[in-house]
Write a structure and sequence with these properties.
Elements (H helix, E strand, L loop, with lengths): L3 H8 L8 H18 L6 E3 L6 H9 L3 E3 L3 H7 L1
Parallel strand pairs: 1-2
């Protein structure tokens, strides 16, 4: 666990904090559930929900696709 006040003091605000193991677990869960129901399925994350380079790398490592709708999102995705 981490103290949010200490994190904000160290990194500033606004600050978005994610649990990497939870994200990876959810990626695997989505892939497994959709894969059981639909043949040849790719789970695609909507970049407009939230996007940064670290998240793109995690999604790639977990085998998810990425839905982008703007040049800015595409730039981050590359």
């Amino acid at each position: 666990g981490s103290d949010s006040v200490e994190l904000a003091a160290e990194f500033g605000t606004p600050l978005y904090v994610f649990d990497e193991s939870s994200l990876r677990s959810k990626c695997a869960e989505f892939k497994a559930e959709f894969g059981q129901r639909y043949a040849d399925t790719t789970v695609i994350y909507a970049a407009k929900a939230f996007l940064n380079k670290a998240l793109v790398l995690l999604l790639m490592e977990e085998g998810l696709g990425l839905d982008v709708v703007s040049a800015g999102e595409l730039g981050i995705a590359q």
